[in-house]
Amino acid sequence: MSLSSPGASLPEAPHAPKADVCLLMEGSYPYVAGGVSTWTHDLIRSHADLTFHVVALVADRGARRLAYELPPNVTGLTHVYLQDPPAGWRWQPGTARLVAALEAPLGRLQQGGGLAEVAEVLRLLAPRRGRVGKRALLNSEDAFQMVVRMCRAALPDASFLEYFWGSRALMSGLFATLLVPMPQAGVYHAVSTGYAGLFAARARLETGRPALLTEHGIYTNERRIEILMAEWLFEGGDTSLVLDRKKRDLRDLWLDTFASYSKACYDACDRIITLYGGNQEFQRRQGADPAKLMIVPNGIDYAGYSQVRRDPEPRPPTIALIGRVVPIKDVKTYIRAAAILREDIPGLKAMILGPLEEDPGYVEECRTIVAHLGLEQTVVFAGRVKLTDWLGRVDAIALTSVSEAQPLVILEAGASGVPTVATDVGSCAELLLGRPDEDPPLGPGGAVTPLASPLDTARELRALLLDRPWRERCAQAIARRVAQSYDKVAIDRIYRAIYDEHIAMPTRPTLEQPGFHPSGAA
Amino acid sequence: MAGIGFALRRLARRDDLLGVLQGYAHSAFITSGPWMFTILALAGITLFGRDLVEMEQLTQFRVVVIYNFCFSVVLTGPLVMVATRYLADAIYAKEVEAAPGMLLATLGLAYAIAGLTAGPFYPLFSGLPLPVMLGGLANFFLVCGIWVVSIFLSALKDYLAVTVAFGVGMAVGMAATLLLGDRHGAAGMVWGFSSGLAVIQFGLIARVLAEYPYPVGRLFDFLSYFRRYWDLALIGLFANAAVWTDKWIMWFAPEREIVSGAMTIYSAYDGAMFVAYLTTLPALTLFTVNIETRFFEHYQGFYRDIQKHATFDQIARNHRAIIAALLDSSRNLVILQGAVCAVCIFLAPMIVGAIGLQYQQIGMFRFGVLGAFFQVMFLFCTVILAYFDLRARNLTAQLVYLAANGGFTLLFSRLGFPWYGYGYFLGSLVAFAVAYLMVADAVRRLPYFAFVANNPSVR
Q: Secretion signal: which residues (chain A) (predicted)?
């Protein structure tokens, strides 16, 4: 089966059959490989008896190749072209009135509005669906004059050129998301906020079916980083340090708009799921109802990994960093920690298990440090390996990343009885030390260290390598924790229960019907 | 997750807006330049040649020159417009290495056009004596060549070189025409005049090659522009045809002269119209100066400030400044041209007498002066349209002029002699009214056109 054709052969809404679950994917599955995409692919395959419709929110109509072969229970694939909404008619009566009516809710969506605004925009667009599109909403003179008025009202001192392109890009995405035909499904499941979340809000309002959200990373945070890093773009604005900014500028236009979409999504969804506790704080701060919040971590194949046997052959004490050799993993700190550790354990082996192709420059820098520190006999770049072959021969794992969400290696190593020393990022602390609500408390499965601290990393690794009872206590604790909370079989059952519950829910009044209430509660 | 990265990247690619500047419309002047040049050349020769050669010889010479000028300018019009745009873009992008190759290619194409049109026409249909016929053929190639070489100098804005080349060439041509005409009649005049044109053409070629000292290459790169700017090609064709269409129709009037073979002409009408058009010289000069100074400054400021992150209020201020500059200039132009026009209409009998036209031409001359008034105003409108790169509107305007000038002239030529010239006047008036409405509308909505309607990066 070729990887480029099957996607094209799947029906798009409204021609696709009604699915049990409609997954809303922004810039990921099935075209871009990565953590979220792999998770989604597994989710679909784990629920082979449910049918799925995938909505892929992508930039434009450019040709693209599937990164995943879609499982047979995917019954439809609808595309939303965020930068290229449907064209619609060029001339139609009432464009001026429509644009005038849209102005207020659109303006509020650019400054922290929410579900009520999305509902208002949908209500205005609904009677003209199929006819209204880019030509009337973005390219008409009425639309241009609206952009002018919005700019003068919200950011009178901003570069109009940037406001124009910025608001155009934002509105393109909004209209593309709101105008595409709606696939029919029992439950709508967004795998991020942003435009996928906006789509979930729309689905909830238009179909009356429940909506779910699983946030792996916090979308608005990621956008914030992206936008601040694109500072060179906003050269007309104030480029001084972020903390010093007082006036609202174009960056706020972007950030506030995405915050509005997130808020609309949180309000529309019945469940707001994330991988670990740290993310919930962000969700609460973005206005998510605490009653809807829920943690469902990613699971691993506990049964498989727990089969890994300790290699009885005599060997030197061995540590390993498992991951791609790229800056975000901070391999340099790991190498420096290995150098400190070797002072006490001369025969130490420090493995680096992971592909070397992604950032050859960084690999080269790492090798230089190895040579400088005289670690050629200690540090081994093993490249991509089959993890289960190695876990039996490793005494402790080190994870020095500067950023992680929920690293699966801690769980995979843990299931096979290998403790980990990890930096305090993402859910590492939760995985290694247990969630506050863990019952009964299982104890530490390793140790957590500050970022970029070779000394701390070396100290904790030394403790694991040299203090055998401590190492065994940690190994047991982490293995039990994985079995209890991170077994994929159990996680799949949790999602299955969530799906079953929501698919069985009665359809609530929609936007057009009496009894409708824009907040998620029926 | 690939979030808004693509949107931000797109935001960075926004320099298309400045592309409007490339729309830079010197090409528009090309439509008035050759026209004026034709009239001046003919006027000079007629003025001096009258007493030297017999009427029949002079008429033969005149018909060759008029045919060559009008058909060459129409036939090379598309080539000239598209090549001008290509060159202007290349100059804007500071990539003019292709210019020498392009010069040879455009010359080659112009000669090919000449060979394919005049090539069969002269031997088969002109019925001229062999020396005149061959001279006419050579003359046609030279005129075609001049039109395309002029592109390079007008894109360079090298007005001095153009003026010098034309001045020297016309002086040589005039002298040679009179000298040879005296001895060899029409053939001598045609060949003499051609020698002057040869001076112009080769002088300009030399000037261009000196300006672009690059190796010859990428000869036909600019041909890709024909697909992209097919509308410009049509503008080049229709604009020139529109200017000549009333003359062509009048060549079928009952009073026309059959000079030789298929070559007919109506000198009384042509002469009156040519002289009438000369009354626009002051306005043309004033307009060129105005465009080059005040308007262009505001025009550039408008787009430059947008690129430099102006607020909308600043953009609106610049917009108002453009409108004010245009209103100001057009008021001055209307007053100047109106005064010239009024004086010429009142003093028509005296003027006609003074320059040796016949008194029957007074009526045509008066209509001609009025028509020229609106024709030149129409020209100014299309120049503004070209500056804002509103090609669809420009093409529409040219088509309206072609249709109106042709249609009204046809209609009134049937009504008899007293109505001759009325069609040209009415056609120019209608075309001006249409073009004016299109310009006024576009200028009023300029920000919308700049950002959305006429912005190539907005799809």
A: none
- pTM of the full predicted structure? 0.83
Region for A197 from its dihedrals, namely left if φ exceeds 0, alpha if ψ lies in -120 to 50, beta otherwise: alpha
User: Do the bridges between strand B263-265 and strand B257-260 make them parallel or antiparallel, or are there none, so unpaired?
Assistant: antiparallel
Least confident range from A23-37, A47-61, B282-296: namely B282-296
Looking at residue B357, its amino acid is L
Contact A46, A216 (CB under 8 A): no
Cβ neighbors of A508 (< 8 A, separation 6 or more) are A208, A209, A210, A516, A522
DSSP annotation string for B174-221? HHHHHHHHHHHHHHHHHHHHHHHHHHHHHHHHHHHHHH-------TTG
Q: Are A256 and A360 members of one domain?
A: no
Number of C-beta neighbours around residue B311 at 10 A: 20
Instruction: Please answer yes or no on whether B6 and A59 come within 8 Å at the CB atom.
Output: yes
What number is the average pLDDT over the span B62-69?
Answer: 91
- A271 lies in the same domain as A369: no
Domain that holds residue A26: 11-229+249-299+487-521
Residue with tokens 């605490």: A290
Identify the residue whose tokens are 């420096």.
Answer: A336
A172 in Cβ contact with A464 (< 8 Å): no
| Mutation target vs B (from A23, A61, A160, A192; most B CBs, 10 A cutoff) | A160
Q: Do B6 and A165 touch (CB under 8 A)?
A: no
**Three-class DSSP labels, A236-290:** CCCCCCHHHCCCCCHHHHHHHHHHHHHHHHHHHCCEEEECCHHHHHHHHHCCCCH
Q: In terms of domains, do A480 and A491 share one?
A: no
What ranges in B93-158 are assigned the alpha helix state H? 99-121, 130-156
| Phi/psi of residue A321, nearest 5 degrees | -105, 125
CB within 8 Å: B4 and A227: yes
CA distance B181 to B196: 14
Residue A185 phi/psi, 5-degree rounding, is: -155, 160
CB-facing half-sphere around the CA of A370: CA atoms within 13 A: 19
- ipTM comes to 0.82
Number of domains in chain A: 2
The beta strand positions in B32-112, using DSSP E, are none
A159 & A271 share domain? yes
A397, two tokens: 């794992």
Cβ A141–B453 below 8 Å, yes or no? yes
CA dihedral sign, ordered A430, A433, A434, A436: negative
Mean pLDDT (chain A) is: 90
Whole-number pLDDT of residue B218: 80
Q: Which residues contact B147 (CB under 8 A, 6 or more apart)?
A: B30, B34, B72, B73, B76, B80, B110
Residues A511 and A376 both lie in one domain: no
Predicted local distance difference test score (pLDDT) of residue B85: 87
Tokens 């039996």, residue located: A392
| DSSP tag of A184 | P
Looking at the structure, tell me whether residues A195 and A213 fall in a common domain: yes
How far, rounded to the nearest angstrom, does the alpha carbon of residue B449 sit from its chain's CA centroid?
26
Distance CA B368, CA B272 (A): 7
Predicted pLDDT of residue A250: 83
CB contact under 8 A, A28 and B447: no
* Interface list for B 147-206 with A (CB within 8 A): none
Q: What are phi and psi of A68, to 5 degrees?
A: -135, 140
A472 in a structural domain? yes
User: How many C-beta atoms lie closer than 10 Å to residue A447's C-beta?
Assistant: 22
Q: How far is CA B229 from the centre of its chain?
A: 18
Q: Are strands B257-260 and A446-449 parallel, antiparallel or unpaired?
A: unpaired
CATH of the domain at A354: 3.40.50.2000
The answer to whether A144 contacts chain B (CB < 8 Å) is yes
